[in-house]
Amino acid sequence: MSIENDLSLIQDYDKNYCLQVFNLLPVAFTKGKGCYLYDTEGRKYLDMIGGIAVNCLGYAHPKLTSAICSQAKNIIHACNYYYIPQKSELAYRLCRASFADKVFFCNSGAEANEAAIKLARSYFYYKDLNKYEIITATMSFHGRTMGTVAATGQEKFQMPFAPNLPGFVYVPYNDIDAMIKAVTPKTAAIMLELIQGESGVHPADLEYIQAIKKLCVEKGILLIFDEVQTGVGRTGKMFCYQNYGVQPDIMTLAKGLGGGVPIGAMLTTNAIATGMKPGDHGSTFGGNPLACAAGNAVLETIEEDNIIDNVREVSEELFDKLGKLRAKYNCIRSVRGKGLLIGIEFDDTITAQGMREQLFSMGILVSAIGKSTIRLAPPLIITKAQANQFIKALDKILKNVQGPKNVFDKLKDAIPSKKQIKEKASSVNNAKIDKLDQLGLTAEKEKALTDGKDIDIIDNDD
Ligand SMILES: Cc1ncc(COP(=O)(O)O)c(C=O)c1O
């Protein structure tokens, strides 16, 4: 039996047999090529969200597909009792490309962050130091396991699963004073995203990250960057920390690393790696040959095909065109992000869900974050022409919804504000009162003053 091409049957099965934790759009994709997806009806979509920053090489990329297929023909899983050549090679590639000396592999972003949290604590445990607190930012997102839910600085993800895991402290993002105040002798680590992706694409300020690094060095605190979403070329550098010139002690990756095959990784230095001994941590599937073969193909392709240059070029085009749309339409409040991780925030006239649905109806996929922001995280191989296809669609929607800004501005200019009317009325009134005085029309003057009303401001004298 195959239900693959029957959307209503797929929906039925999902409703009846899958835990209902997602708000699904009424579509199922059966095929992809490059930056395009095809649904059960054969309809084509431009993917501007890339499986939420995962499908960095798009769909059915020949190098990735062939690496996965040939690996599957040999061996998919052995286990961590034995050496795994694909794992050793991927660890080497990651260390060569980053600050790190050692890598631990797992299967997702949350697991990579769990490993980071555990390492930060065990590092001090083995040093006989009572340091276990981890400071994270409000509005952060670090995953859905109990540890990473506790690390996530948003109550809505924690409430149903209370009690929260202890030992986490939350401070406002981009606020160095709050961070300094939150540090105690028990602080083991500061854990941050360099761009808060899930809460609206908010980048960290350069000075903030530099000041945090200084604080960590001074106080002997470990610095953890969660690069699950920003890593592997997404922001125009291999890793986002390279945009800041600040190295962490621990970094986590997932999403783009396998190009769609589940994999996570925690990277650290030799010094910090002493905090984990054999048996302290592990994962049945982590580092398996299939996922690591995918990871190797992704990293090799990014390097060989100069994909990071493409990220920078297309990003520049998108920010330029989005800036122009912002100048044209009042309703775009801000455009934020770096590389190909971009948030577009609208004012109250447009909801993120509404915009996502309109784009969807035009065959373009984005994600909606909160009430007012849509997020773009397209495959890193996207072309300028494809980026402009999105820009044109957005322009068309905004034209229909709001009309260009200059029409509004002209209207605004033509209609004086309340304050202007009052000022104008009182100056006209004063002039008129003077005139009434001159003419000796005292009764009319008294009436105007007691009524407190404007005296006919359409006056020929004006
Ligand atoms: C910054 C960040 N960390 C962690 C995670 C969790 O990753 P996963 O869903 O693979 O567990 C995400 C997922 O969106 C993320 O964006």
Can you walk through the features of this model?
The protein has helices spanning 7-17, 50-53, 62-74, 85-97, 109-125, 146-151, 155-158, 176-182, 206-219, 270-273, 289-304, 307-328, 352-361, 384-401, 405-414, 418-439, 442-451, and strands at 29-33, 36-39, 44-47, 102-106, 133-137, 168-171, 187-192, 195-196, 202-203, 222-226, 250-253, 264-268, 332-338, 341-346, 364-365, 367-369, 373-376. The relative contact order is 0.13. It folds into three domains: 32-52 and 310-401, Aspartate Aminotransferase, domain 1 (Alpha-Beta Complex), CATH 3.90.1150.10; 75-304, Aspartate Aminotransferase, domain 2; 408-461, no CATH class. It is built from 17 helices and 17 strands. Residues 407-414 and 439-462 have low confidence and may be disordered. By secondary structure, it is α/β, with parallel strands linked by helices. A seven-stranded mixed sheet has the order 4-12-11-10-7-5-6, with helices on both faces. The chain has a four-stranded mixed sheet with strand order 1-2-3-15. A four-stranded antiparallel sheet has the order 13-14-17-16. The termini are far apart. α4 (85-97) runs parallel beside α11 (289-304). The protein is globular.
